[in-house]
Design goal:
Number of helices: 6
Structural class: mainly alpha
Order of helices and strands: HHHHHH
Largest sheet: none
Distance between the termini: 90 Å
Strand content: under 5%
CATH architecture of the largest domain: Up-down Bundle
Number of strands: 0
CATH class of the largest domain: Mainly Alpha
Length: 190
């Protein structure tokens, strides 16, 4: 009986060893192939789908509102549960509360990069002004506001959110005052 148990144990150990060696070999990183030049060029020339107005309404506006909400109401007290994974309100989603504020702040920071891509049009069809001397500074203001809001959300500190929201409002107003707030839509982005 002991011999059978010993043989069985040896068989199990051998099988487990082979299994773990196979896993280790399967998880070894593959050598990355250098992409052909044509593929690399296509990767950097992504098509632009949204005009500036659509980008603002679809990304900047809703994410800013999450930060602005946190100025006056504690995101930790927002009703929402892990079951609300399909909630359209980021604060009530499975990634809600303060995490939603963090995510919105990071989204604003990252999406600011889309404001620097040449070729994007304003809602009126004009070229967006990324080549203007002040544009990079205006975009950097949005990035800085996003990071300030992110740090405030990480700290779960509404006083710091107030300051971050003020910085965000100023960053948005600086750009809107120059490029958006015009009597005629045709005069925007000039």
């Amino acid at each position: 009986m002991r011999t059978q148990q010993a043989v069985l144990a040896l068989v199990v150990l051998t099988a487990m060893s082979a299994f773990f060696v196979g896993i280790t070999q399967a998880q070894a990183p593959a050598r990355a192939a250098t992409p052909p030049k044509a593929v690399a060029d296509k990767a950097t020339a992504m098509p632009i789908q949204a005009n500036l107005g659509q980008l603002m309404k679809g990304v900047f506006y809703p994410n800013s509102n999450v930060i602005f909400f946190a100025q006056s109401q504690d995101p930790a007290k927002v009703n929402g549960t892990q079951e609300s994974s399909t909630a359209t309100d980021p604060l009530q989603s499975a990634y809600g509360k303060w995490e939603a504020v963090e995510n919105s702040a990071l989204a604003l920071t990252e999406v600011a990069n889309l404001l620097t891509i040449p070729g994007r049009k304003c809602a009126n069809g004009r070229e967006m002004p990324p080549r203007n001397a002040d544009w990079a500074k205006l975009v950097q203001g949005v990035r800085e506001a996003g990071m300030q809001a992110y740090k405030a959300a990480q700290a779960k500190d509404q006083d710091k959110i107030l300051d971050a929201a003020d910085t965000l409002t100023t960053a948005c107003a600086n750009c809107h005052d120059k490029y958006r707030e015009k009597e005629k839509l045709t005069d925007r982005c000039m």
